[in-house]
Amino acid sequence: MKIKKEVEMDFCELIKWAWEYNVKSKKVHVKGRGYEIRFDFAGDICFERGYITTTDIFEVEIEVDEEITEETVIPNLLEVYKNDGVIDSVNWKYMSIKEVLKEDGEQGITAKMFYMLHDDGTLTLIWKDGELV
């Protein structure tokens, strides 16, 4: 299953990745520097500032094929749960099912299902009634 992960790259890795995946219309943050660079609609690089340093690290969100486990950190994890007989839901950011289940246990909440929420608004069921699907 494809999931999004945030990774850090130096400038050479960033350029190689951008060319390999034909990156267009995407912003990339420069770690700890308060600005970003942008790949425009044609894939050309636009600098917010006139330079980058040899030590700059770029924070990039990429898609990878990965087997989902209860330990996998999911960028947008939608939990459907039961609390005091009421069914409700909550969206967790960058959490694993295992982490959420631990929090639920501390609060007396019973998880029913977990979905991965995609950027286009669609959902993928990944866990139901105590088991990965």
A few lines on this structure:
This protein has helices at about 10-20, 95-105, and strands spanning about 1-10, 25-30, 35-40, 45, 60-65, 75-85, 85-95, 110-115, 125-130, 130.
* Spatial gap, N to C terminus: 12 Å
Task: Summarize the biggest pleated sheet.
Answer: 5 strands, antiparallel
Task: Tell me the strand percentage band.
Answer: over 45%
Number of helices: 2
Number of strands: 10
- Physical arrangement of strands within the biggest beta sheet: 1-5-2-3-4
Q: Helix/strand-derived class? A: alpha+beta
Low-confidence stretches: none
Quote the average pLDDT.
90
Radius of gyration: 19 Å
Order of helices and strands: EHEEEEEEHEEE
The gross shape turns out to be elongated
Label this structure with key terms.
133 residues, alpha+beta, five-stranded antiparallel beta sheet, 16% helix, Phage PVL protein
What does this molecule look like?
- By secondary structure, this protein is α+β, with helices and mostly antiparallel strands.
- It has two domains: 2-65, no CATH class; 74-132, no CATH class.
- It has two helices and ten strands.
- The chain has helices at residues 11-20, 97-107; strands spanning 2-9, 26-30, 35-39, 45-47, 58-65, 74-83, 86-95, 110-117, 123-128, 131-132.
- The strands form two sheets. The chain has a five-stranded antiparallel sheet with strand order 1-5-2-3-4.
- Strand 6 and strand 7 (86-95) form a beta hairpin.
